[in-house]
Amino acid sequence: MGFGWNFDNSYARLSDTLYASVGLHPVSDPKIVIFNEMLAKELGLSSDELQSEEGVQILAGNKAPEGSFPMAQAYAGHQFGYFTMLGDGRALLYGEQMTPENERFDIQLKGAGRTPFSRGGDGRAALGPMLREYIISEAMHGLGIPTTRSLAVVSTGEKIIRETDLPGAILTRVASSHIRVGTFQYVANWGSFEDLQSLASYTIIRHYTDIPNSDNQYLYLLQEVIKKQAELIAKWQLVGFIHGVMNTDNMAISGESIDFGPCAFMDTYHPETVFSSIDTKGRYAYGNQPKMGLWNLARFAESLVPLLDDDEDKAIEIAQGQISQYMGQFEKYWLDGMRAKLGLFDQEDQDKELADELLDLMEKNQADYTNTFSALTIGQHEKSPLQGKDGFEEWLQKWELRRSRQTQSIEESTELMKNSNPSVIPRNHRVEEALDAAVNGDLSVLERLLAALADPYDYSSEYEEYCIVPETQKRPYRTFCGT
Ligand SMILES: Nc1ncnc2c1ncn2[C@@H]1O[C@H](COP(=O)(O)OP(=O)(O)OP(=O)(O)O)[C@@H](O)[C@H]1O
């Protein structure tokens, strides 16, 4: 069986400082839990063959696919502000699959066993968190937000030891690359100048092909990465996504969202919302994400300093100049997105105020973020979580007046809103319900949830049950880092 593999291992050719080649750690009884046939097709892979007995061996890390070069990538990172060496401690990169469209995607197994970067860990992952990453990454894709994807989750047939024994699993992750801010930090700290230069040049070739080949190309790289992150984080904010662990090793240079450990979507709007059990100080709270993006990008800029100018002072000044652009860019992306959520095509100075007033009303009244926008979209104000609340009528009038001042019709405006306001998001209680059922062998709940999340801007009533807000919970919802 050929499976459709078409590997090109360009990262392996770059510099062996950047990775450690690794052997396989077979598991005893691998079985497919979920498989993404649409994604397999996009990658040029045969779904039937990959789901066969031989295919499962590949997805479990028991047998390397032809042409692959199994490796663990080296990287470092600031975790909650503290710098440390990291690297793939439980992930194995098979290589880069070249698709029929000649696109390049990393194929990585997460949970595939120990590597030279494992430190004290067992290199393994549990079924619940790997399915969670599958759900959220596919939900992000459905929402149109750049993200790594999930091709499959296999159960290993083995238990992993945590606080309790948990069923083990391996996720096949697909990414346009796994180059992180932390990869640059690693090379800037422990690699040579040539390593840094070749990583930066490689990143340009792989992700930023529009950058001109000039003396300034690393400056352009910094500029483009800043822009991509400003755009990405604006998209997170607009759908109420909270990443939960925005460490520098979890910021991908490609501009894709990566590592869906303790992430979750916000129901009730509040800027201080935190779900992660380990984020005790709220460093990565919803409202802090833009600022944390800036902090991470400053670390990226620091890593690039040797490439920006021979004169260090001048290089730092250049880096600072670029970093200072970020907040303005973020705000612009955010406001453009907010205008679309409110059905506005053109720009007026008071638009930010209009949006902020709505957010204030949501915060004051503990309104559901997603449902506030979807009620506006379908024009059923009686369904709005803000209906009957002080100030909402006045706000509606202001908004309707603003909408009527543009040349586009109300129908066009509504269409724009439908494409900008998801009716379905992966609500925490729904995700938990799907995971519980799946871990107990019933995949139907997960499959239905995934079907709803594939088309989150569909306002038909088919998946209406996913729009229902959970009853107020006694304790706040908590997520835990990837077990
Ligand atoms: N069970 C484990 N065994 C070995 N290393 C681990 C284990 N769990 C996490 N790590 C390592 O600890 C570091 C931080 O973990 P974190 O949970 O942020 O990453 P991850 O979810 O494993 O990986 P990724 O960022 O690729 O999605 C990483 O270097 C990771 O490889």
UniProtKB/TrEMBL annotation:
Molecular function in Gene Ontology: AMPylase activity; ATP binding; magnesium ion binding; manganese ion binding
* EC numbers for this chain: 2.7.7.-, 2.7.7.108
What keywords were assigned to this record?
ATP-binding, Magnesium, Manganese, Metal-binding, Nucleotide-binding, Nucleotidyltransferase, Transferase
ATP-binding: is it a keyword of this entry? yes
Pfam families per the UniProt record, alphabetical: SelO
Taxonomic superkingdom: Bacteria
Q: What is this protein called?
A: Protein nucleotidyltransferase YdiU
**Organism, scientific name:** Ureibacillus sinduriensis BLB-1 = JCM 15800
